[in-house]
Design goal:
Layout lengths: L5 E4 L5 H12 L3 E6 L2 H14 L4 E5 L5 H14 L5 E4 L14 H29 L2 E6 L3 H4 L5 H21 L4 E8 L5 H4 L3 H9 L9 H12 L10 E4 L6
Parallel strand pairs: 1-2, 1-4, 2-3, 4-5, 5-6, 6-7
Helix pairs in contact: 1-9, 3-4, 4-6
Length: 246
Amino acid sequence: MIKGKTIFITGATRGIGRATALTCAKHGASLIIHGRNEEALNELKNSIQKEYDVQVHTIVYDVRDTEEVKKAFIWIKKNIGQLDILVNNAGVLDDALLGMINEKQVSNTFSINIEAVIYHMQYAARMMMKRKSGSIINVSSIIGRTGNTGQTVYGASKAAVIGATYSAAKELGPYNIRVNAVAPGFIDTDMTKQLSEDKYAQRLNEIKMMRIGKPEEVANTILFLASDLSSYVTGQVIGVDGGMVL
């Protein structure tokens, strides 16, 4: 479905990002995988290339550093020359109840979860506009749609991702660049493993399908949005939550 296309995935070493990289490699895409841990990136690259006949490039930087983001896209343009798909997956979760939120939490969460998304979209769009083709997928969250106790900062940042997705879709539509978002619910990642048994059971009880989601199930939705199967889909937020918000 995306064979021969080049896809750039931020935050690719774990969870949804890793599952997305493996899924896209399986379907023949050339990968640019990003993370802050060079060892983890190389491990993922080697794992992919052992199983699939695709090109994999690694790129290491902190998404909070706007100059490094710019340099990453300069490198992509110089060394690869094209970008067909961007998956803005890098994110952070730092819970705090109102009254306990500090300036550092707000600054760090927004810098990673929304400011970096905007800068990555901006540079990716410049490359895509020249070819009048592209797909951008932003990873938001169910919390950005419904909110949650103790997650005012995180929820606000993920709601901002949805707003940015809508606006970018309107702006880039005339260039045949589609911009969509996925809003995962309770997914089996490192974030959910940190929950207490009581919290874990409570979250499961809220899901109509009565099970936790797999990162691969989010990755399959991202694959759909990246591929030509969704060629007339833009400005959408697709929940991948097993009926958690019904």
